[in-house]
Queue: 2 jobs
Job 1
Amino acid sequence: MVNTLLLPELREMLAQGNDAELGEFCTAMNAGRTAEFMEGLTDEQAWQVLRNTEVPRRAEIFGHFTHERQVAILRDNEPGEIAALIEELASDDRVDLLQELDKARVAEILPLLPWKDRRDIQRLQAYPEGTAGALMTTEMAKLDETLSVRQALDALASQSEYFETIYYLFIVGENDQLRGVVSARQLVSALRSPNTPLQDLIETDVVTALTTEDQESVAAKVERYNLLAIPVVDEARHLVGIITHDDIIDVVREELNADAQQMAGISPLDTDFLRINLFLLSWKRGIWLAILFFTALFTAFALKYYEDELSRFAWLAWFIPLIISSGGNSGSQSATLVITGMTSGNLKLANWRHVMAREWLVSMLLGGFVACFGMLVAWVVAPSARDALVIPITLFFVVMCGCFCGASLPMIFKRLGLDPALMSNPFVAGIVDILGIVIYLNVARILLS
Amino acid sequence: MVNTLLLPELREMLAQGNDAELGEFCTAMNAGRTAEFMEGLTDEQAWQVLRNTEVPRRAEIFGHFTHERQVAILRDNEPGEIAALIEELASDDRVDLLQELDKARVAEILPLLPWKDRRDIQRLQAYPEGTAGALMTTEMAKLDETLSVRQALDALASQSEYFETIYYLFIVGENDQLRGVVSARQLVSALRSPNTPLQDLIETDVVTALTTEDQESVAAKVERYNLLAIPVVDEARHLVGIITHDDIIDVVREELNADAQQMAGISPLDTDFLRINLFLLSWKRGIWLAILFFTALFTAFALKYYEDELSRFAWLAWFIPLIISSGGNSGSQSATLVITGMTSGNLKLANWRHVMAREWLVSMLLGGFVACFGMLVAWVVAPSARDALVIPITLFFVVMCGCFCGASLPMIFKRLGLDPALMSNPFVAGIVDILGIVIYLNVARILLS
């Protein structure tokens, strides 16, 4: 997937030290595409290319490198140049990057930054991971409530290079107390009467996030109200930062992946699969495997209990995996539908009767469907047609039981105030396994005796 | 969760026909919050409230209603008023809504719309679901390349009410040929020299989407380049629309939910779980249950093959579910990690050696861990310590086999150009079940003979 189109040229320019052409390369395309064309270079070479353009552009292209490359560049190059680069990065991104460098390296770079940036970094670092504070950037368009439209545009014109976004202009009073918001669109529309005071345009009912608020809750607000950015305030409603839409997409992706992992019986990783410590990964998986193991242990007790039936009708044992997997699979399907429905907000707990009624109908259809296949197979194996009936009847009830457990258990968890994704698919399958065996051998006991 | 704070007051105002106060209610808060306070009203009442404010505001609040309420309002009220409302809605949203009304109703409303809107709706309806064309809106800030900064701002000021966003201004030449983009930020910064021609500010290297492009690919571009909106062009590079960040969040959520469903063995639903036709839902689940049933059938053949061992050592059968579920669970874990890693772009196919090496280490740890539990349990049940060893040894290899299959199968699918999520967890589990039984009974054959 690496874009190799310009690689030979770039390598040649680097070899010849052709700084002018390298500088031109850095500005010829948009920053994202420029970074893409450099994917085939080493981290070292990529930095050599970047050094041929001005620092703001350098930071812009750098922002599109992969996380690994960004860390490598910050780690391995001259501290003065790195400090200049860091000064230009968005305040939320640079905090994330600095956290990945070792302490000695950070101590080398930080003193070279202007006092204001240093303070900003330290403040952002203080917010715990996963809160609005840790996600926000401090570069936002902040305007005093006393300005007019004309003055506001002038103020923006002189500082707009520093802002990550100007689609919302936040209007503040004394001590950065948040008063309201004006959209860039409104400001531009008001240009025809440039002396209008900002206060006439202000929307005072602003949706805000608290610095300590959970990132999932922030993302829900942004999605619900279709915001481009959300202002972050402290307890006393002082504007301290904003969270922009691109960070929200990351949060949504992160949360859904965490749910998917939880549904598969893995405690959410928080780190990339390829970067997480192997012992930590084993722990996050092992703990669930252990829980599931002890759940599955009941199946062994159940089978031991039906020892007699199993020894008299040996062919019953052959179908055990088939039966429990049919129940487990229909259970996982229902659980996944209910969990994804609830996390995406389409399915509310109040709908539970509706959900269960639908599941009941679907499970009858699915149970009947799978039972037909089961009948065909059992016919071949079982000694008589009457004996063979054990398999389809069992399958029918096991699939119904799977759907019922799969749909209800996540909703019960939700009702108890727990994360429904905790009622992971393997856990549902484990419970259905036990019930499946009990159903199977009781049906067998009745029909075969 | 329904906000009931103002419900009694709203109901009273409606009963008394207090139009002035209802009108005030509609403008007192931001549109999203206003819609929230109306959640407890009937659809009929909600519309009665909305009628007390001006049409643009009405449309804004309407945009925050649930999809069900939106459809109900469009279906049940006076066509003239509904047409006026539809005229104000974003062009992408109204097309989605009209698709849910029956044809007779649409035929009643459409002729009441201005010709321009009608044509726009018909054009957007022509794009197939899931493409950039179907996702885009046609309200974007489009400026002629010959304007100056001052003229551009004036043009914007006079039309900005019609645009969904102005953070990017698209610069077009003849016949709306896309020339480039200027950000609102750049335009505002350039205000100090208002006679600068737009052409001096233009970024010509624009990332675009084709009308026919798949929505997943569009979302990937927006995420990759951190865009606020992406312009949509036709084959001849005419600008026909834009896709905004909020639609992208929806696409990301939709795709990840589809993956989660696929991973649980359900063909992606495309519709809400609560709204999808029950026979369609049963089909989308049944087809996978059938595939999984026939995979699981091999376990029955395998067990039949080892008939002798099973009848001589009856206690072996008791552990079958425990052993295959341990394998299946570790397999689902690995598959989910690899699939979510690949869909979020953190894990590339080129990393396969790295992935497999890590999985190998983790599977040894997990296998050893589960084997310890297995030893404890087997000790109690098996006739001798030597016999008991069958269980831990089997568990160790089954867990390793689960991790190996779970990690490799999705990558193999990806390599073959198929969707890795197709290699669903139940399918991986099914394969591991069969291998698990073969491992189990061969270990038993060696140790117990």
Job 2
Amino acid sequence: MTLLLSNGDVDRLLSMRECIDALDLAYRDLATGRGTDRRRSDSFVAGPSEGSLYSLKSMDGIAPAFGVGAVRIDSDVVTWPTRSGNARREKVPAASGGRFVGLVLLFSSETGEPLAIFPDGYLQRLRVGATNGLAADRLARSDARTVGLLGSGWQAGGQAMAICAVRKVERIRCYSTDREHREAFAREWSDKLGVAVEPVGSPEAAVRGADVVLCATNTIDNVFFERWVEPGMHLSSIKRPEIEPAAIRRADRVVIHARDASPIHVVAAGIDVPEVREGKGWKLLGEIDFASLPQLHDVVAGTVPGRARADEVTCFLNNIGRGYQFAAAGGALYRKAKAAGAGRELPTEWFTQDVHP
Amino acid sequence: MTLLLSNGDVDRLLSMRECIDALDLAYRDLATGRGTDRRRSDSFVAGPSEGSLYSLKSMDGIAPAFGVGAVRIDSDVVTWPTRSGNARREKVPAASGGRFVGLVLLFSSETGEPLAIFPDGYLQRLRVGATNGLAADRLARSDARTVGLLGSGWQAGGQAMAICAVRKVERIRCYSTDREHREAFAREWSDKLGVAVEPVGSPEAAVRGADVVLCATNTIDNVFFERWVEPGMHLSSIKRPEIEPAAIRRADRVVIHARDASPIHVVAAGIDVPEVREGKGWKLLGEIDFASLPQLHDVVAGTVPGRARADEVTCFLNNIGRGYQFAAAGGALYRKAKAAGAGRELPTEWFTQDVHP
């Protein structure tokens, strides 16, 4: 049977710690080249309304440690409104019922057959969080207690979960541009994490004296600046432009997620995509030589060292998602789902065929 | 609702003529750049048995003429045995019940939502046939009556259907290495097409005097040679190595399917993939300058001329599949399925989500 799982199943079945462990295991295969990761591609055509685009995104990976291949697909109507002075990429919930469309398909690398299908939303956040968590595990001071969090949206929750999974965090100071939103976030996550999450009125108040700074915004502008860097800090980002290039250059040790950092963009004629257009969203590439930076999987495998001294400034740039993460985290999720008897069983015959295509 | 269709539905709903018409319409958008086509990627890791590999293949496309995006995925255990002296790529039916795994997912470019899911086997053949049929429509002599067919497998049937959809074919002479197989093919397709399909004992007997030569094998060796070229012939191939480079150079007019002809290969360390290895399967690339050849969509749109004289030798190389074909043909299929009330309706909510991933 092929398992159809929901976001609720993902949330219930796979903890952040388990997701970090899955990446920790699988990334060793990435370091030795045993696993494969197919670079993300984004295709764009004109969207259904003025200023909107239709975006079809996919990425693949095969994780031998879990015996699975994964394809992750996002099918979105996208807009780029300006909020609080920052340009943001926003998906429009244009599917029936005001919903979004993102799917992960998991396949067995032993038989080829489809093992599971599930929405990508929860696993997406888990694996982003787990990636930065895994990096923090190798790069943040072992006695890190105080976290500055920039952002209070969907990904900010994942980042908070992840740092709490790898360090004995005592306090998270959270800043985001919308006061009500950051206050609601602080209440929600104080409860969920059992850690004091405090809303603060400026980014400086969030990051001053922090052992770990987590950027978790959906802006395509810089949100953390060089003047805020302090000795011993670990800086962490989930989007390339969040950390000012000068701040990255101040770090003693910079690690990126993947060197193959440019998605394949397939853009229809006459279409202007803000993040593809030569512009500030991606200027970081021009100033930092990504190809010279060590990658997370090499740090995980131990072929590149992590933090060496307490006063070092370290920096992890989660510069692009990898299809491989969905294979690794999806593989761990699938094992747990099978063990728990979770999900809706669909006949595998629906998704297989008797012809050699 | 999201439609789950079967290969039987595809076979019943979409005729070869309709598939050719769908490509004819959609390829005009490809010529003007309005449609997008994301290059195929093949990922390989070690397979479950000695000499086998696990292959995860994907390709995407968005066809504005049908308002759909498509992702096509193949998840296969693959081997490369030698049959009758030729190396062949063969998929192992390793999924439960001895089945293969290939899927097409169709999405609306208006709402993002999943419109349909179906196995790729029948549409795969239809779109390959339709591509060569569309090319033959522009390149073969308008009075072509005699066809030489090399191959008697799954794709050969599609090629025979396609040429009969665009020309008043009177006779198809079929050669393949296995006598019983070509005789069975001839019986089956004579009935299906209402055209005399004759099995012959040599490739020369198939192609001599033919107006159209269709190569439809799964070999990675040359099967059609320069010495067989005759004035006025249209040569057609579904795999790069089928036609000897010298024969291609003899043609007055050569058209390829797509210039972006190299799949992205993501190969795990220590894995040897015969078709990726520098070797005869792909040597054509080194001898023919693909980047200088006109592409089918430009011929379809009329920006590059088709056949100009009766005695010209023309040649179409269906050198790689395109994700765009699944969007175009899948879009036409979906319209017919909706109109016919065909398929199994699955709740779209199974494949959508309320979180912004």
